[in-house]
Amino acid sequence: MNDSSWGAPPQAGYWGPSDQGPVQGAAPAGPAYDAHYAQQTRPMPIVPDVPEHGGDQDDDQGTARPGGPLFRDEPFHDQPGRDEPYRDQNPSAQPYAAVPQNPEPMPDAPQPAQPQPPQKKSAGRDLGAAIGVGVGLGVVIIASLFVVKAVFVGVVVIAVVVGLWELTKRLEERKGIKAPLVPLAIGGAAMVVAGYARGAEGAWIAMALTALAVLVWRMTEPPEGYLKDVTAGLFAAFYVPFLATFVTMMLAADDGAWRVLVFLMLTVVSDTGAYAVGWRFGRKKLAPRISPGKTREGLLGAVAFAMAAGALCVQFLIEDGTWWQGLLLGLAVAVSATLGDLGESMIKRDLGIKDMGTLLPGHGGIMDRLDSLLPTAPVVWLLLVIFVGSG
Asked: What are 360's strand-pairing partners?
């Protein structure tokens, strides 16, 4: 039924409710007809407005849509027969429903989330244990470095062998790669000693013999996986003992102990500067896919700290060294130490581990401390040779 028929006066062609009215399609009988039949015609019920929060509303007109509380299949129970005339004229129409007198209130709107207080940054490790272990290692290294050089060479050999064990163990556990540890450990120790005794020539010869030993040793096992095992073995031989030989090659100079001390100090200062500045001011990630904890601000801190320390160390600890050489050395150390740290992180991410070992509380394993030292050693050795000679 359209809106015009709700309580509107009879129009032409209107069918009266009585059987005495005009036949269908006849014209109205005039005023007498209207007066006679108006007394028998029941007015259409007036439907109250729907409360704003009751039923479904049209988005654009605000009128009630079928399917809301006005159009439920419930007759008027308080006035029986009130809807019969309308249903006689429109048999398919639904009976009128009573308007609810006490509609349910709308549910309360959800309260906005309360802002949480900012959380303090965490170092992520046991800082006390890390400092204690670091101080202990520093005492052992410095004591062996300035008392007897051969003892320091032994310390380097132990670090290399343990590092090789950690690396090959993790490769086997996580990737099923069996790099032969025995030839690597023996050849690695020989490389470190040869670098101290015979320089770069001795280190290269020991490296070549170690690679040959890895190839032959792996032949004693089935051929399945031979290529990946020997490839991992050659990588381990270069990554750990060969790079470590540059430390003992620095030690072989007349002022070798001071050169090694400068190398260690600059690497530690670079790592410390990166950690301190990155933890306090770090916002922009340096390489989030490799090491999410490193930031660009931390890299700048590493460069600033290492360059300042380099200028002081080269000026006062290295014979014939000058401060500007120390600035360049510090810059190179910061870059190489960061790249070495990222390289180690790349290996650990590929293996799906956080640390290479658990030998050092607060630090992880030996390899987790050698990650920035190993690639920095040849850089420092080369620049010192260029600046002040081989000694």
From this structure: 364
Q: Which residue has the tokens 């639904």?
A: 94
CA distance 172 to 178: 5
DSSP assignment letter at 94: P
User: What are the E-state strand segments in the chain?
Assistant: 285-287, 291-295
Check the CA dihedral 124-125-131-134 and report its sign: negative
* One-letter identity of residue 148: V
Specify the amino acid at residue 228: K
Picking from 250, 274, 247, the residue whose alpha carbon sits closest to that of residue 337 is 274
Which residues touch 78 (CB under 8 Å, ≥6 apart)?
98
Domain parsing of the chain, residue ranges: 44-98, 253-388
Report how far apart, in Å, the C-alpha atoms of 39 and of each of 23, 32, 85, 224 are. 19, 12, 14, 107
Q: What's the pTM value of the predicted model, to 2 decimals?
A: 0.68
User: Would you put residue 125 in left (φ > 0), alpha (ψ -120 to 50) or beta?
Assistant: beta
Is the pLDDT at 269 greater than 90? The verdict is yes
pLDDT in tens, 102-125: 555 555 555 655 656 555 555 555
Q: Per-residue pLDDT tens for 302-315? A: 999 999 999 999 99
What's the CA gap between 278 and 10, in Å, rounded?
87
